[in-house]
């Protein structure tokens, strides 16, 4: 089966607007589909592992905070806000990075992100009051993670078209791989070194890996006479695109996905403790969830190149929702919890594996992708901030089905709503295709 052209859905989603349609789109032969692009994929994989991957380990840290009295008098909701704040700050900085990208190089944002993330980890190791966690582990880490993520997330699109889904899936798997490693490592370091030295070790490792990867990373510049992927033309986005029903469905998918994703990611370790399992079991469950993401994101990317990016992302989101509603409530023993963690992980992080590739389908030019993604990241700020707060508030110790049953239902419904939003995108894409065919 030839893979030289995008599937019909992708064609339908290339929504023409008066601004972006004036410049020709690069043809297939202008993308090397490999070469140094694979080096870039590996570098971004490692950056994701040491940003989102380390952030994923907060589920283990949150479980430690909830079960120990390190900061006396601090309510559980405060700890939940810290986890949400790091993600929302990472997304909030997106428009700033996008706006400044035509005048500042990607390497500047990478170095800034490395310094901020390292400062946050080292700073968190010296905190004595809970409010200081908001500044270090929340705001500072979030801005550092966002600077690294936003400035690099679109680079695979510059090197790949036919294999774009695979490339984006691999780089997105970095966060799952990092989450797998650091969920286990963080729990072990907390047990053997204490949580303060655990932060310091994480800071040193992330500084080294992110700095080296960022220095090796390279953007691809193509002659402006043939394409618009040059650095000086990044970030354009037509206001008419934002009004398209397909794009609004894309934003809704992100909104619901992030609510379900954070509720699942940060609740699993504390859920294990709530049903009588120990902290090692909780950290291993979080690690296996990240293992599922590490396996599932490249799989989603590969399948999306063959069967359509919208359809694949919708199915993956729906399956994750069903697992949360049908399987998770009965996962009260180690074996069943571990099985659920892996299965749910396969579709849990679909948004990170598919967002960049789907955004590239929604616009005609690659230079508009950062702008489209910036709108998405801004939409995710509010749900990213409150998702774990909602999950903690939904816990019901008196529930017959278990204290986390409302959380499980909430998570499942959010993923199903995300899948339904992609159904809206698919519907309007098909409608536009039929109208264009007369």
UniProtKB/TrEMBL annotation:
Region (Disordered): 1-29
Homology family: Belongs to the major facilitator superfamily. Monocarboxylate porter (TC 2.A.1.13) family.
Domain (Major facilitator superfamily (MFS) profile) ranges: 246-438
Species classification: Eukaryota, Fungi, Dikarya, Ascomycota, Pezizomycotina
PROSITE patterns from the UniProt entry: MFS
Chain segments annotated as transmembrane: 36-65, 77-101, 108-127, 133-153, 165-185, 197-217, 247-269, 312-331, 337-360, 372-392, 412-429
Keyword Membrane: yes
Intracellular or extracellular location(s): Membrane
Composition bias type Low complexity, residue spans: 20-29
Topological relation to the membrane, as annotated: Multi-pass membrane protein
Protein name (Swiss-Prot/TrEMBL): MFS general substrate transporter
Superkingdom assignment: Eukaryota
Keyword presence, Iron: no
Keywords, alphabetical: Membrane, Transmembrane, Transmembrane helix
């Amino acid at each position: 089966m030839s893979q030289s052209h995008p599937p019909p859905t992708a064609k339908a989603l290339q929504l023409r607007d008066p601004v972006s349609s004036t410049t020709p789109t690069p043809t297939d032969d202008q993308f090397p589909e490999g070469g140094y692009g694979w080096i870039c994929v590996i570098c971004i994989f490692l950056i994701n592992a040491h940003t989102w991957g380390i952030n994923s380990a907060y589920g283990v840290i949150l479980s430690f905070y909830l079960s120990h009295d390190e900061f006396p008098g601090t309510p559980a909701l405060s700890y939940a806000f810290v986890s949400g704040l790091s993600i929302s700050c990472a997304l909030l900085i997106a428009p700033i990075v996008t706006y400044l990208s035509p005048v500042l190089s990607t390497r500047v944002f990478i170095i800034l992100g490395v310094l901020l993330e390292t400062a946050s980890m080292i700073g968190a190791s010296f905190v004595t009051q809970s409010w200081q966690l908001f500044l270090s582990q929340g705001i500072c880490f979030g801005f550092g993670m966002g600077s690294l993520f936003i400035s690099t997330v679109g680079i695979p699109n510059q090197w790949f078209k036919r294999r774009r889904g695979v490339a984006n899936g691999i780089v997105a798997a970095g966060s799952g791989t990092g989450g797998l490693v650091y969920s286990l490592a963080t729990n072990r370091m907390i047990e053997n070194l204490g949580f303060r030295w655990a932060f310091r070790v994480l800071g040193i490792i992330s500084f080294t890996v992110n700095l080296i990867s960022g220095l090796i990373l390279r953007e691809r510049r193509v002659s402006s006479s043939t394409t618009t992927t040059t650095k000086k033309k990044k970030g354009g986005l037509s206001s008419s695109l934002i009004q398209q029903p397909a794009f609004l469905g894309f934003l809704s998918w992100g909104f619901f996905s992030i609510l379900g994703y954070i509720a699942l990611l940060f609740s699993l370790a504390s859920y294990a403790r709530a049903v009588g399992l120990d902290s090692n079991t909780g950290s291993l469950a979080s690690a296996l969830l990240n293992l599922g993401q590490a396996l599932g994101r490249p799989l989603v990317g590969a399948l999306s190149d063959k069967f359509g990016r919208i359809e694949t992302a919708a199915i993956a989101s729906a399956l994750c929702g069903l697992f949360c509603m049908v399987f998770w409530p009965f996962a009260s023993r180690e074996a069943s919890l571990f099985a659920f963690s892996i299965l749910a992980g396969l579709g849990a992080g679909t948004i990170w594996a598919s967002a960049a590739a789907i955004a590239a389908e929604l616009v005609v030019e690659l230079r508009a992708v950062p702008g489209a993604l910036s709108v998405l990241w801004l939409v995710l700020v509010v749900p990213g901030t409150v998702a774990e707060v909602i999950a903690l508030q939904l816990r019901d110790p008196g529930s017959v089905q278990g204290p986390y049953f409302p959380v499980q239902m909430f998570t499942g419904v959010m993923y199903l709503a995300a899948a339904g939003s992609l159904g809206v995108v698919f519907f309007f894409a098909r409608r536009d295709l039929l109208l264009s065919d007369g």
